[in-house]
UniProtKB/TrEMBL annotation:
Bilayer-spanning residue ranges: 12-39, 51-73, 80-100, 112-131, 171-194, 214-236, 243-261
Organism per entry: Breoghania corrubedonensis
Subcellular location: Cell membrane; Membrane
Name listed for the protein in its UniProt record: Probable membrane transporter protein
UniProt entry tagged with the keyword Transmembrane helix: yes
Keywords: Cell membrane, Membrane, Transmembrane, Transmembrane helix
Length: 309
């Protein structure tokens, strides 16, 4: 069953898009991630332009994050002051990211930049995750405990100035690394269409020692607000948000997440991280192959902003 996407300007199979959203939702429910860094490449592989894919996925991330925020808010597992500092940095990062996005689109280098960024980013993240998870599994098989730092231990981050007290997280730390983390996530979300939870959650736990019972809900608040800002900026600045595509992806994602959450409960943490690392590396490899293979159409025509003859 074909359906025409008005912003993407191409017909797609609605069941294929639903399946795609369901598959990413399944992985999101299994691994506890937003899934934007997987959904954006999949849309690009189906022929949707990177500009529309990135902007539309921010909308899908907003929807999935909102449902999670409601759940953690009812459990009182959100540190709102911490989320506010992350949000301030995230909004600034989103604004810079959308500006760079528009600039690259204007000069005709957006597609290449996104592809190279995804190859580098996914290869780095996937490689590090795979190494860490394999080491954890080897230690577990040998009967050795997985070495984790205790929450009470401090590192160089705790020696920075401009400290602020976060009562829910029982922290007294500098706002500098928190703001920088928010800026980074906001920037990546606007440029690459990723929520960034798979970066933010480990950073909050291991660098800032945020308790695990509040870190996910707090992260989701920042992702929700930052991606909402990015969605509005993309819609106003680039007119590249396809609402129909986003709606189909949301429906599939909600259904898939329910099944993924059930499967994830039966796997150990290191197994989940290893599987996720393999998925991330596979997507990065696909991008790398597309960069080196000769395209079907050697030449393409596009209208760049500026109105030159």
């Amino acid at each position: 069953m074909q359906i025409y996407l008005p912003i993407a300007e191409l017909p797609v199979n609605i069941f294929m898009i639903l399946s795609m959203g369901g598959a990413v939702g399944f992985l999101s429910g299994m691994f506890g991630i937003g899934g934007g860094f997987l959904l954006t490449p999949l849309l690009i592989f189906t022929g949707i332009t990177p500009a529309v894919a990135v902007a539309t996925v921010t909308t899908q991330v907003v929807a999935s994050s909102f449902s999670g925020v409601l759940t953690y808010w009812r459990r009182k597992s959100i540190d709102f002051p911490l989320a506010f500092v992350l949000l301030c940095g995230g909004i600034a990062g989103s604004a810079v990211g959308v500006w760079l996005f528009s600039l690259l689109q204007a000069v005709g280098q957006l597609d290449l930049t996104i592809s190279i960024a995804y190859v580098s980013f996914l290869s780095l993240i996937g490689g590090l995750m795979l190494i860490e998870s394999v080491r954890a599994m080897l230690r577990s098989r040998s009967g050795k405990p997985v070495s984790l730092r205790r929450p009470g231990q401090h590192n160089w981050v705790h020696g920075l100035p401009f400290k602020m007290r976060f009562r829910r997280s029982r922290l007294y730390v500098s706002v500098i690394p928190i703001a920088v983390l928010g800026i980074t996530i906001g920037f990546l979300g606007a440029v690459l269409g990723i929520g960034g939870g798979f970066i933010m959650v480990p950073a909050l736990i291991y660098l800032l020692r945020v308790p695990t019972n509040v870190v996910i809900g707090t992260s989701l608040v920042q992702i929700l607000a930052t991606m909402a800002v990015a969605t509005v900026l993309h819609a106003v600045t680039n007119q590249s948000v396809d609402a129909l595509l986003a709606l189909i992806l949301m429906v599939g994602g909600v259904i898939g997440a329910q099944f993924g959450a059930r499967v994830g409960q039966h796997l150990r943490g290191e197994q989940l991280r290893a599987l996720l690392a393999l998925v991330v590396l596979s997507v990065g490899l696909r991008f790398a192959i597309d960069l080196v293979l000769e395209p079907v159409d050697l030449y393409s025509f596009s209208v760049l902003s500026g109105g030159g003859q």
